[in-house]
Design brief:
With 219 residues, the chain is an alpha/beta fold. Helices cover 42% and strands 21% of the residues. The protein is built from 8 helices and 7 strands. The chain has helices at 2-21, 28-35, 40-48, 66-73, 85-97, 134-143, 160-174, 182-191, and strands at residues 56-60, 77-82, 104-106, 119-125, 144-156, 195-200, 209-215. The longest helix has 20 residues, at 2-21. The radius of gyration is 16 Å and the shape is globular. The termini are far apart.
C-alpha cells in the first residue's frame, strides 16, 4: 500500500493544495466544511476567541479570513498575512463585509514585514508546513513583544479530517520537512526563544484538538 499512498499524497502536495490556495480558492470553504463535518469556521473562530479583545493580533496564514472577520466584529486590532494573493483578496473582502478595515498583507511567515516587538499575540489555525520551519519560528519570536503569546490550533478530529491530516503529514515527509507534530513544533519554537508546549484541549463543541501555546519571556 505504501506505493499508491505515496503517489496519492504526492499528487495532493503538487497539485491539489496549490490549486486550493490559488485558482481553486473558491472551493476552499467547501472542502474545509466537508473534511470537518461542517465545523471548520466555528473551530477557527473558537481559536480566535481565545485571544484577549484588547490585544494586537497577527494571524499567520489567514486564508479566506474567517478569524480576521471574527476579530473585526469585536473591534480587534488585527492583521493577517498569507502567501496567496487570492486568499489575501478573499480575506480582505470578508473583513469588509463584517464592517472591519482590511489589514491583510501578501507575505510569507518566514519573512514577516512587521517590526520587532510589535504584536501581542500571533495566531494560526490549521497551518501549512511552513509553520515547522526554523525561520518561521524565529520570525514569530521576533515580532512578539516581551510577554506576548503565540496560539496555534494544529488539528481537530472529525471524520474525514483525520484522513486529511494523515495525508498532510505524509505530504510533509515526502516534501523533506520534519512532521509538524506538536512536540516537534514545541521544540522548534523553544529553540527560537519562546516558552512553548503542546496541549490537548477540546474545542467548545467537544471536538478533540491539539494546540501549540507559547509565550515570549518578559524582558
Amino acid at each position: 500500500m505504501r506505493g499508491p499512498a505515496v503517489r496519492v499524497t504526492r499528487w495532493v502536495v503538487e497539485r491539489f493544495f496549490p490549486w486550493l490556495y490559488t485558482r481553486g480558492a473558491w472551493a476552499y470553504d467547501m472542502v474545509a466544511w466537508l473534511v470537518s463535518g461542517g465545523r471548520w469556521t466555528r473551530w477557527v473562530q473558537a481559536a480566535a476567541a481565545r485571544v484577549p479583545p484588547d490585544a494586537r493580533v497577527l494571524e499567520l496564514g489567514s486564508g479566506p479570513g474567517h478569524a480576521l472577520a471574527f476579530l473585526a466584529r469585536r473591534g480587534q486590532r488585527a492583521w493577517g498575512v498569507d502567501a496567496s494573493p487570492v486568499m489575501v483578496r478573499r480575506a480582505a473582502a470578508r473583513v469588509r463585509r463584517h464592517g472591519g478595515t482590511p489589514r491583510v498583507v501578501l507575505a510569507r511567515g518566514q519573512a514577516l514585514p512587521w517590526p520587532a516587538n510589535s504584536v501581542d499575540w500571533v495566531l494560526a489555525t490549521f497551518p501549512a508546513p511552513y509553520i515547522a520551519e526554523a525561520r518561521t519560528a524565529s520570525e514569530v519570536a521576533r515580532v512578539l513583544r516581551p510577554g506576548g503569546h503565540v496560539l496555534m490550533l494544529l488539528s481537530a478530529q472529525s471524520g474525514l479530517l483525520r484522513l486529511w491530516e494523515r495525508l498532510v503529514r505524509w505530504a510533509w515527509r515526502i516534501d523533506g520537512l520534519a512532521p509538524a507534530e506538536a512536540r516537534y513544533l514545541a521544540r522548534c519554537y523553544r529553540r527560537a526563544g519562546l516558552e512553548a508546549q503542546a496541549v490537548r484541549e477540546p474545542l467548545p463543541d467537544g471536538s478533540p484538538a491539539l494546540w501549540l501555546r507559547g509565550r515570549k519571556p518578559a524582558a
